[in-house]
Design goal:
Strands 5, 6, 7, 8, 9 and 10 form a 6-stranded antiparallel beta sheet that branches. Helix 1 packs antiparallel against helix 3. The chain is globular. Strand 5 and strand 6 form a beta hairpin. The chain is an alpha+beta fold. The chain has 11 helices and 15 strands. Helices cover about 30% and strands about 25% of the residues.
């Protein structure tokens, strides 16, 4: 038998055995999790499993985890980590599950740790900070801070998860004023691989504090973020819609707006052109972080004809809630689509 063919067969056999061993290892860990933490462990046989395994925003990130662990308390999360690391079982961590990358915040043949029950929001008015659970989404965070007329440097889309955006650095409508989302973290509360829990901030574990700002989920499982707050509440902003024919003018306006050497840091925008759906066309989400109508910062865009305009003085949360998810083609895993 040719040597290359023999090697190929051995390689396929090794991969098959490895995958089978991994599945068995994950199944054993899931059995242990169910035995010790049955109230937070969801197996494929349970009714909640289909919705939890495909809760991620994009079909590219749907998967079939061996089980889902939904810890409610820090001791429960520590126990989950201890079981999985001691048995070398692969696992994934999900906050909001908005990342569309394949298997982002999900896993096949491993354990999915769903952080959605870590959903607290506590505002400290004396220290101007808010402590936010890692399983929260930005919409809930903003809504709970609105009564205090403050906000945080956070996501521009309300259903994005807090954990993924912060640990991935994070852009915000407030970034020209205060930097990336991760730059505004005062403290990370995090469970490490040895299941211990520590705080990382400017004085305690400062190197970990630095590394978590863009370090993704490689350094532990964050349970809570303490974020600086800012007295921004009412703004001017909304959505301007255009036909696709206006794209050349919009690109020219964008260049003029962005290249201004004295760009107003209170002005921010997000520009999207939906070329696969001409009925939607191009959309410009713009916001001025003061309640001042039609500020000069956006003057390059004012002369371009619109098909719709919702700009007005409103709260920042209201402005973001008005953003649309247009009906455009979206990838759905064929097998998952059939099952759903």
């Amino acid at each position: 038998m040719p040597l290359l063919l023999t090697f190929s067969r051995l390689l396929c056999l090794s991969l098959t055995v490895g995958i089978a061993a991994g599945r068995n290892q994950s199944a054993v860990a899931c059995q242990e999790l169910e035995g010790e933490l049955g109230n937070i462990t969801i197996l494929p046989s349970q009714s909640q499993y289909p919705s939890l395994s495909t809760e991620n925003w994009s079909g590219t990130a749907w998967a079939t985890p061996s089980c889902v662990a939904r810890p409610v308390t820090i001791p429960e999360l520590q126990q989950v980590v201890q079981i999985l690391t001691s048995q070398h079982v692969p696992f994934a961590i999900r906050s909001g599950g908005h990342m569309p990358s394949p298997l982002a915040a999900n896993i096949n043949n491993g354990v999915l740790i769903d952080m959605s029950m870590f959903n607290g929001v506590a505002y400290d008015i004396e220290n101007n900070v808010a402590t936010v659970g890692a399983g929260q989404t930005w919409g809930d965070v903003y809504n709970q801070l609105d009564p205090y007329n403050v906000t945080v440097v956070g996501g521009r889309v309300l259903d994005v998860g807090v954990g993924g955006l912060i640990l991935g650095s994070g852009l915000s409508y407030l970034s020209d004023l205060y930097g990336l989302v991760c730059d505004n973290v005062v403290n990370f509360e995090i469970v490490l691989a040895n299941a211990s829990i520590v705080n990382a901030n400017a004085t305690s574990n400062p190197e970990l504090w630095w590394a978590l700002k863009g370090g993704s989920n490689n350094l532990g499982i964050v349970t809570a973020f303490t974020l600086s707050t800012y007295p921004i509440h009412e703004v001017w902003g909304g959505i301007k819609s255009y036909t696709l024919d206006e794209l050349p003018a919009l690109f020219s306006a964008m260049i003029e707006y962005q290249s201004n050497p004295n760009k107003d840091p209170y002005a921010n925008l997000m520009f999207q052109a939906f070329t696969t759906n001409a009925s939607v066309g191009a959309v410009l989400n713009m916001v001025y972080l003061k309640p001042e109508a039609s500020p000069p910062a956006f003057s390059p865009f004012y002369s371009i004809p619109t098909t719709g305009d919702t700009t007005k003085i409103q709260t920042l949360t209201q402005m973001m809630s008005g953003q649309i998810v247009p009906p455009i083609p979206r990838y759905v895993e064929p097998q998952m689509k059939a099952e759903r």
